[in-house]
What we know:
8 helices; 2 domains; alpha+beta; 10-stranded mixed beta sheet; 16 strands; Rossmann fold
Amino acid sequence: MGEVHMLVSPRGGRGRAAAAAPVVRRVIEQAGHTPVDISGSSAEESADAARAVVAAGAQRLIAVGGDGTLNLAAQGVAGTGTALGIVPAGTGNDFARAFGLFGLSVEEATATALGPTRPVDAIRTDRQRWVTLSVTGGFSVDVNVRADRMRFPKGPSRYTVATLLTMPGLRHRELIVTVDGQRTELRSALFAVNNTRTFGGGMAICPDADPADGLIDVCAVGPASRTTMLRLLPKVFEGGHVGHRQVHMMRGRTVTIEGEMDLVGDGEEFGPAPIRLEVVPGALQIAAGASP
């Protein structure tokens, strides 16, 4: 019936993506399609491959891995009509959580990835890169770096453990956030600009974020002591940090981040600030079932 392209992370979920790939191929074949693996040996090669197949007319691309793999696929499909499917086999899988895909079997996720699509927002940066999930800075980047170096525990709990281990080194940065032209200055321990509710393996840092509302949400925390951060940590999973006097929530269509800090986009190193972000409504066609 046609080709279905696959982008598989070689290291996603400490090998879970590579293990899932044969199952994904089998389900694609059983559905009457021809699986075509376009995975590169590096992130750059994979992103280039995604752009190339979409430019050549690919109808559907399935990302097998975590949020980083999805980001690579998005570099090719964002702003086009190509369907993007997700088989969550990474560590955080936060974008998949937003659509009820986390926890599905590989077979179930692949079947969904072959199904109907819905329009979903993406974030366009001033670096010729797209973001599907979030851009973060400060303490959250320090946690991400530590988590990437850890072998245990596996799964989303690694981010929680990394958070606790990183807490003694908590420091603040001077941050300037401009949302739709409104400028806010503060000493920030961390910030996140999110398209979806969660980051870091299920932490609801922006609990009211909706990836289909044409807006992006911002959470900036600080100034906050280590004690305050430790008290807020368990609340973040359910969004209970919102309303605390040191938690600042913002929302808009464009966000500019300024300050001396490194950034992480969709779990991958993104370089230093400043950065400008703009939501593009309906930039992605996500195969996650019809819109509710």
